[in-house]
């Protein structure tokens, strides 16, 4: 059994669902972040159990369940494709069932608070409801951080709308004085150009395992100034 399959089994999810079917549709971009890459990215972040991690375009939930499992923080997955979301709900039920005997219904390896995992069937354009979900029942302390994770899931124009709304919400102090970071895996030049329009600071760049085969195999972390 591969490490990918083994960790899927540990989390009681199946992230191979629909892959063959989706790949047959050449107009549809679908990918997931393997667990090795996730470990590298998590090592780059100063993430703790008090933070919130939001995966924009979460697919079958591979990232949100692993981060919740490994770090013990609240995670939120946003997926706009109805077909994928139906399968995501199956993984969600499996993850909760696997860990139903644990505090908060989740497996926590750092022994923390039993933070929840939420999934949203939302188009990324439905920005207001996504932010409402982030803020619901969660009191941010100054030391806490809010992370947004992107794996090149949508158009540049949609990304710009999302980031513009994030800047607006932060300017209204809806997130308090907390740190806000945007984490991009496989960042294209088009995305990089778009991000220059906003008050973001590039904090880190890490070349990943296949960088010398593919120059976009890197993780870039931006903070909101």
Automatic annotation (TrEMBL):
<feature type="domain" description="DOT1">
    <location>
        <begin position="28"/>
        <end position="85"/>
    </location>
</feature>
<dbReference type="GO" id="GO:0031151">
    <property type="term" value="F:histone H3K79 methyltransferase activity"/>
</dbReference>
<dbReference type="Pfam" id="PF08123">
    <property type="entry name" value="DOT1"/>
</dbReference>
<dbReference type="InterPro" id="IPR029063">
    <property type="entry name" value="SAM-dependent_MTases_sf"/>
</dbReference>
<dbReference type="InterPro" id="IPR025789">
    <property type="entry name" value="DOT1_dom"/>
</dbReference>
<protein>
    <submittedName>
        <fullName>Histone methylation protein DOT1</fullName>
    </submittedName>
</protein>
